[in-house]
Specification:
The chain is an alpha/beta fold and 255 residues long. It has two domains: 96 residues, Rossmann fold, CATH 3.40.50; 120 residues, Hnrnp arginine n-methyltransferase1. The strands form three sheets. Strands 6, 7, 8, 9, 11, 12 and 13 form a seven-stranded antiparallel beta sheet that branches. The protein has a five-stranded parallel beta sheet with strand order 3-2-1-4-5, with helices on both faces. The protein is elongated, with a radius of gyration of 20 Å. Bound molecules: S-adenosylmethionine. S-adenosylmethionine binds next to α1, α3 and β2.
Length: 255
């Protein structure tokens, strides 16, 4: 099947590993299920996967151009309805067996996964599921070349500590968008530390976890005040952000 897409959604489609993990997670749904929501359906590719297993698929997309593509791409599927709407303003009426929501980004800071799921999951059946099921975040000390918040797309940095898991979310639980934590990270070499690197692992299902991919959660690099360190120093850092409100909400300080 040939998909009509916007340039951004074309890049998402080209990331085969991203598509194949979502395909595997959806392909676990054998049999005739009732209703699935695809929130932020983009080109409609995940709705296309879902249409095989669900009697009804409702796909919401905020971007008008992407919505037009999805509507055309899915026009031959009688069980799929594409709606041009912000999920946060959509009046859900029916409870679903499954919600698929790929509004992921590193630590969920810059995209609306958490606010959208907090709104939509009231319309999930009692034993309903969410794909992805959750995320796991790790953090490590680094020396950065660039002193502004950026994603690792060929950026230069040197690692100064082992990654440690600092947060884990299961999307079925209520999640407060405001996040803050006091971290203690142990250096594993001497030199200068001036940043943190956050890496997000996406838990598609119980048995399927994927690390950063070209179009899924590249590691996020965050500057810190420069600090000279020796091996095995313990560095205390407060890290705060609001999930869904953008990378401008990220605040760090030594304590
Ligand atoms: C990362 S893309 C995923 C697209 C598609 N599901 C895929 O996997 O290829 C996220 C999509 O969510 C849409 N989106 C973001 N916020 C939204 C909102 N509040 N309501 C509806 N769609 C939203 C974006 O326009 C974008 O198309």
């Amino acid at each position: 099947m040939k998909f009509k897409t916007t340039p951004y959604h074309f890049d998402l489609l080209k990331d085969n590993d991203r598509l194949s993990v979502f395909f595997q997670a959806i392909d676990d749904y054998e049999g005739n299920m009732d209703l699935a929501y695809d929130l932020g359906c983009g080109s409609g590719v995940l709705s296309y996967f879902l249409s095989k297993y669900f009697n009804e698929v409702i796909s919401l997309e905020i971007d008008e151009k992407a919505y037009e593509c999805a509507r055309e791409n899915l026009s031959s599927f009688d069980n799929t309805e594409v709606i041009n709407s912000d999920v946060l303003e959509y009046d859900f009426t029916k409870k679903a067996d499954l919600i698929v929501c790929e509004m992921l980004d590193t630590a969920l800071i810059d995209e609306e996964e958490i606010p959208v799921l907090n709104h939509a999951k009231k319309f999930l059946k009692e034993n309903g599921k969410i794909i992805p099921q959750g995320i796991i975040n790790t953090v490590e000390l680094v020396n950065l070349e660039r002193h502004y918040i950026h994603w690792d797309e060929g950026a230069n940095y040197e690692e100064y500590s082992k990654p440690v898991v600092y947060s884990e979310f299961n999307f079925l639980n209520d999640i407060k968008p405001e996040f803050d934590i006091d971290l203690t990270l142990k250096t594993d070499k001497s030199g200068t530390v001036n940043g943190l690197m956050i890496t997000t692992y996406t838990k598609l299902t119980d048995n399927l976890i994927v690390g950063p991919l070209p179009m899924l959660n590249p590691p996020l690099l965050i500057p810190l005040e420069e600090k000279s360190v020796k091996v095995n120093d313990l560095i205390n850092i407060k890290l705060k952000y609001i999930m869904g409100n953008g990378i401008e909400t990220i605040k760090t300080e030594y304590y």
